[in-house]
Design a protein that fits this description.
The complex is a heterotetramer of chains A (225), B (282), C (260) and D (203). Chain A is mainly α and 225 residues long. Chain A has seven helices and no strands. In chain A, 48% of the residues are buried. Chain B starts with a helix and ends with a helix. The mean pLDDT of chain B is 85. The chains are: A mainly alpha (225), B alpha/beta (282), C alpha/beta (260), D mainly alpha (203).
């Protein structure tokens, strides 16, 4: 088994990260700060690379000074002025522009994909299981939406519809919570895979031994947790 | 002292469950049991859609997963990359890779690419990596109409105007397959691609966390989302479909056993709770 | 001028915008200020804080990791509006509050929210500087670790989580449920609706957070916006009925409308 | 100078790109302007990345300068930042190793512990709620069994039953939620145009 330093370093870091499961300790804090530092370095490297290809090259090498790029660069520099209290208000211009683009792009997508397509219901006269499915979906969508009416008290017909809508949403949320838990399980199981291959197996063995000792310690010695 | 009191006092529940969890996962990973694996209908549909991409078609692979979700989305991502590059080799398709949510997506996209053997394929003619383009939804909207304007250069700095492959590829009219791998909500991709892709008949396939699959059902039923991969279960299924079992298949047994423990615990805890309620004590 | 398939979309968009604009203007000018229905979570605030006073335990409040100047700002603002009401009750009953802040620019805003809550509640002497604790900028794991530690150590009587919350929803509500706190939680983010309903005693589902914030602040434009959203919901309900009827009688009118 | 600070400029900077994009969406014209505006947003996002890094750098430098409580951790953070950043230009293979191997596996491990913690948390937490949540419990169990890879071993009915719940009742409820969120997005859009959303524009 070739013992290369890369895997050893990786395993050491993973063990430092998982030491939190035992309790918060120095190793965990070091691992956390290392990862923030590396993430910052990666962001800076890629940020500067993007800046070079999108702003520096066109401006200084291709000399496109009169193009709208010069306005964007100035707005970008305003954005960096958010760091200082006096010039903080200048940064609101680029933020407003970005917010304008983000909202418009979102809204233009919402009308078709999230409203028109979802409001289109299917026929109730197809026959067999398909009809029942279409009926259930139409009723659940209708009553679910009635539940989201806020400026009218849920009494009378609306109260009945919204009450049923709450049950419809409850089934939907229960199902989402169930699949969410499965997502958590497969996330943690997936990470186990790295610890079950050759170099990581020792780390897991050590972890298991510590756990067993911990449990025995709880039973024998410590009366009350 | 009653057994129930002894359990709750002397045993630290977290550690015990954690130990059982570790054992249940370790056993199948060291000695695979080979439990049967159901392949879902959307996974099969995603496979057929990629298989049906015409000769010389353009496949767009957007990798927006994050580090924590690599364990879940990795198997599916690697299987789709292997299948896409097999199409490049057989049918001369073109592959465009890009990332628009966060930098981690680009790194994990490269990691998935490292599982594919690229011998005999030429960068710039068979596949292009556009790297990380900041802007998330603005990039997804812009790539539908004018790809070269939002991505002036590729990851290595060569201008997209000069890349031979991208000469006549610039908008939705030139794409034949849209794939995204995301660990946040998938409605952003459907909002930006849905309308135009549906009009052109271009399929949209999204590899998503199993926690977000229920959120995608309205789009799947409305037809804007053509097919989806339900995280690692679908990843393992897709690996079987392309005949190259790998990371996903190995995880399946461990998934099952860890899952059984979860279901057993939830029934045990809820059962206790309901019994206590029947007994009148809240 | 307008290509095929876009006319109906444009008309619907203008109708939705128009209804919203009319509702907001009517409410702003005071002609028709809408009243929002009773929301279980808002009615529960006095009971939750009262229980905290009886048990003489603190209340843990949080707005998640959303900031005030990114796309999650509206959710955070709505969460803060409700928390202002909660802190006021805490001031009246003399209950200490704890908030972990992980956005540097939110620190001053939260400090004066908590301080003014206690002043308005009539017990300014209870307010202390460490009620709003700053734990590093934008570090979700730091917030999760801090919440886990605080809830398991201090065992607060109530755990209130409102705003743009991400993975810490699960951690905070899970710890709170284990420690037996009464929990009010609300976020419009779709991903965590299941967890809210499963683990919180008084969940605010989907858009209810905005409605609750508008009800608490009573600010006419917000109330008008909620009323406008209700008119849009009614428009969608009508469209659902129409599309169902058209589909059932088998007429292709609906598809023609979409392709018009 | 004061007039430059007014809100209307921010709202104008919000409305002009929004109008360009929406007009292009509905009429198809102004496509060149739309591409330009989207490129602007993408370029400004690049500056946002730099701001994040500088902000964090400043924060830790002040901790170091004032010898606050956790200054040793800040030195580790800044050291790893500077070394890795320098590696990119003097020793690229080292940079790739640190980012692709160390950072990736460390980030996965750091969030894996959350997976473990949530594993145990869900059971103990879900056992304390009122019985009204019985519907919730049944659909949670169904969700778990449907996603179980070896479900056919226990009962072959889980697949079709789970698929039906996923495709029909869940879709109905989720339709209502997604339409609600869609309407909320449009409401936020118009409130910002009318100037009632101060903070959204960085206020």
């Amino acid at each position: 088994m070739s013992f290369d330093w890369g895997t050893a370093a990786e395993m050491a870091l993973v063990l430092m990260a998982w030491s939190l499961l035992y309790r918060d300790n120095v190793f965990y804090r070091v691992a956390e700060n290392l990862t923030i530092g590396w993430f910052m370095a990666m962001s800076l490297v890629i940020g500067l690379d993007l800046l070079r290809t999108r702003v520096y090259n066109p401006l200084f090498i291709e000399g496109r000074w009169l193009s709208p790029l010069i306005i964007v660069t100035i707005l970008g520099l305003f954005y960096l002025l958010r760091l200082y209290r006096e010039t903080r208000w200048l940064a609101r211009w680029p933020i407003s522009l970005m917010a304008g683009v983000a909202s418009a792009v979102a809204v233009k997508g919402v009308i078709y994909a999230q409203i028109i397509r979802l409001v289109t219901m299917k026929s109730w006269a197809v026959g067999g299981l398909e009809t029942i499915n279409n009926i259930i979906i139409a009723v659940f969508t209708f009553t679910g939406l009635c539940y989201f009416i806020f400026t009218k008290e849920h009494r009378g017909v609306l109260g009945y519809l919204a009450g049923f809508g709450r049950y419809a949403l409850m089934i939907c949320f229960g199902w989402t919570a169930g699949t969410y838990l499965m997502s958590l399980i497969s996330m943690s199981v997936g990470h186990m895979q790295t610890l079950m291959q050759v170099p990581g197996i020792y780390v897991s063995a050590v972890a298991m031994i510590i756990l067993i000792i911990g449990i025995i310690y709880d039973i024998k010695v410590k009366p009350k947790i | 002292m009653s057994f129930r009191k002894w359990i709750s006092e002397r045993i630290n529940q977290d550690r015990t469950i954690f130990l059982i969890y570790l054992l249940l996962i370790a056993i199948p990973m060291l000695r695979p049991i080979g439990l049967p694996l159901p392949i879902e209908e959307p996974t099969r549909k995603a496979y057929e859609l990629l298989e049906k991409v015409p000769k010389g078609g353009v496949i767009v692979l957007v990798s927006d997963e994050g580090f924590p979700s690599w364990a879940e989305l990795g198997p599916g991502e690697i299987a789709v990359y292997r299948h896409a590059f097999r199409k490049v080799r057989q049918d001369g398709c073109k592959v465009i890779m890009l990332t628009c949510y966060e930098i981690a997506g680009m790194i994990l996209g490269e990691r998935a690419l490292s599982y594919v053997d690229l011998t005999g394929l030429k960068y710039g003619e068979d596949w292009v990596q556009l790297g990380y383009i900041p802007g998330y939804e603005a990039v997804l909207a812009a790539m539908m109409t004018d790809l070269k304007s939002i991505a002036p250069v590729d990851k290595f700095g060569t201008p997209t105007k000069d890349i031979p492959m991208l000469k006549n590829i610039n908008s939705i009219d030139d794409y034949d397959f849209l794939y995204a791998c995301t660990y946040t909500a998938m409605d952003v991709y459907i909002r930006q691609w849905g309308e135009k892709a549906l009009a052109k008949g271009v399929p949209i396939v999204i590899n998503m966390l199993s926690g977000t699959v229920p959120l995608a059902m309205p789009y799947y039923r409305a037809g804007t989302l053509t097919a989806y991969l339900n995280s690692v279960v679908a990843g393992a299924g897709y690996e079987l479909l392309i005949g190259q079992p790998g990371m996903g298949a190995a995880l399946m047994d461990a998934q099952s056993t860890a899952h059984i423990l979860a279901i057993a615990l939830i029934i045990f805890v809820q059962g206790l709770f309901i019994l206590r309620l029947m007994g009148g004590r809240r | 001028m307008i290509p095929a398939g876009k006319k109906f979309e444009l008309i619907l968009f203008l109708v939705l915008l128009g209804l919203l604009y009319v509702a907001i203007e009517l409410s702003r000018r005071g002609i028709k200020v809408p009243k929002i229905r009773e929301l279980a979570a808002l009615q529960a605030i006095p009971e939750v804080v009262g229980r905290a006073a009886e048990l003489n335990r603190p209340v843990h409040i949080s707005t998640g990791i959303g900031g005030l100047s990114d796309e999650w700002a509206p959710m955070t603002i709505a969460g803060m509006a409700i928390l202002r009401n909660v802190v006021e009750y805490c001031g009246k009953l003399g209950v200490p509050v704890k908030y972990f802040c992980i956005r540097a620019h939110m620190l001053p805003a939260m400090q004066d929210l908590v301080r003014s809550g206690y002043v308005k509640g009539g017990r300014p002497e209870i307010y202390s500087e460490d009620m709003v604790e700053f734990i590093g900028d934008g570090q979700q794991r730091a917030l999760m670790a801090a919440m886990m530690g605080y809830i398991t150590r201090e065992k607060p009587a109530a755990n209130i989580l409102l705003g743009a919350t991400f993975y810490e929803t699960y951690i905070s509500l899970g710890c709170g449920a284990v420690q037996g706190c009464l929990q009010i939680a609300g976020t419009p983010r779709l991903y965590y609706q299941g967890i809210l309903v499963a683990l919180a005693d008084y969940p605010l589902i989907g858009q209810e957070l905005y409605a609750a914030a508008a009800k608490v602040t009573g600010n006419p434009p917000d109330l008008g916006s909620i009323a406008g959203q209700d008119y849009n919901t009614v428009v969608c309900l009508i469209l659902i009925v129409i599309s169902t009827i058209l589909a059932t009688i088998g007429s292709a009118l609906w598809n023609m409308l979409l392709k018009w | 100078m004061l007039s430059l600070r007014r809100r209307e400029i921010c709202i104008l900077l919000y409305i002009i790109p929004a109008a360009i994009i929406l007009i292009n969406h509905f009429t198809g014209e102004l496509s060149a302007a739309t591409s330009e505006v989207l490129l602007w947003a993408s370029t400004l996002a690049t500056f946002a990345i730099l701001l994040g890094v500088i902000n964090l750098f400043q924060h830790h430098i002040t901790i170091l300068a004032r010898r606050r409580r956790e200054w040793p951790y800040s030195t580790i953070l800044l050291a790893s930042f500077i070394v890795t950043f320098a590696f990119n230009y003097i020793y690229p293979t080292g940079y790739d190793f640190v980012i692709n191997r160390l950072l990736a596996s460390l980030q996965m491990a750091l969030l894996a512990y959350v997976g473990f913690y949530s594993y145990t948390l869900f059971f103990r937490a879900s056992g304390t709620k009122n019985p009204y949540v019985l519907i919730l419990l049944i659909s949670i169990l169904l969700g778990l069994f449907y996603n179980l890879p070896m479900r056919d071993v226990i009962w072959t009915g889980w697949g079709p039953l789970g698929k039906w719940v996923n495709d029909v009742p869940n879709t109905g409820g989720m339709n209502a939620l997604v339409i609600g969120v869609g309407i909320g997005t449009i409401a936020l859009f118009i409130r910002t145009i009318l100037g009632y959303e101060e903070s959204y524009l960085g206020g």
